[in-house]
Amino acid sequence: MKSYRPNVEMQKRRYSLRLSLLRLRKGKPLHGAAIPSNSEPWIENPRSLADAEAISDSVERSIKGWSLK
Amino acid sequence: MTSQEAVAFLASKRRTVLLGGLAVILHGLSRNTKDYDIWLDPLPDVQSWAAPIQQLLTQEPSLQARRISPFGRWKPIIVGDVTVVGTEDRLIRIVGIERPIDVFYVPNELEAVDFEGVWERGVPIEHGLRLIEAIDLIVTKQLTDRPQDETDIRFLTSKVEAHYRERLKTCSEAEAVSMLGRFATPEIAAIAVRESKEDSVRALGWRILYEMRENGDPFAAEFIREMEREGR
Fold it and tell me: Which of B133, B182, B151 is nearest to B23 (CA)?
């Protein structure tokens, strides 16, 4: 059985990004509570291949629709 | 024939596990993908693996097999070459349907002998097909270094961490050893230290954090600093 531990290089990139964001805020905490996720799933609890294909196609259409022409 | 029908045909002939982007979607991440990735039981030999693919290609002349070239292009192959290409490339692509199907002989980061465990841990979906378990799916993506895989790994990792977070609070040492032996992140090791009721599980969390810090993980180093400040 294969096991998983995060790739150290990827962890360093994530950590570096986090430090950069912290520096942008000059170390100050964010004000107020974060807004909870307001996105809605294309299909709640996908279970079948048809569900997975429908989600993929919806995302594809959405990307095409919103991309800069 | 549709892609789903072709996948169902293969799954009816041989144990088949769904991998890749569609598997990530069924685990709950909304993203797009162009193809099916499936793993057909590779044991006992490549001929057994190739037989249902060759049967499908023979029955449905509109379908063709392709092999990946070094430049990422797909070149046509004849039905008789599926066995040798499967061995050399570890996958073949079936085209001629709306969504190509990449059929793996052995996926990235796995070996043929891993199939049994991956199948056992998988969840039945339909047509006899199983969805690869989240940790196994992360394993197949961990060294590819593609941006999409990084996103997939972060999503799947959060999902596994949420499950581990609950279990680690009350689980036994034996269960914690088994869980953390299979999957561990600095966040999860820190949860074991902070929230487990068992001394032995907390000690295990510390050991993993120290190992990760030793290997250069900056998050592990930060958790250790934080918890030492907290006087743990």
Answer: B133
The dihedral over CA atoms of B50, B131, B117, B162, expressed in degrees to the nearest 10, equals 150
User: CA geometry: angle at A20 spanning A17 and A24, to 5°?
Assistant: 140
Q: Beta strand B123-124 with B130-131: parallel, antiparallel or unpaired?
A: antiparallel
**Residue range B196-209, pLDDT digits in tens:** 999 999 999 999 99
Taking an 8 Å cut-off on Cβ atoms, the answer to whether A4 and B135 are in contact is yes
Determine the Cα–Cα distance for residues B6 and A16; give it in Å rounded to an integer: 45
CB contact under 8 A, A6 and B181: no
Give residue-wise pLDDT tens across range B82-103.
Answer: 999 999 999 999 999 999 999 9
pTM metric for this prediction: 0.89
Option in A5, A12, A52 nearest B25 (CB):
A52
Domain ranges of chain B: 3-132, 162-229
**ipTM score of complex:** 0.84
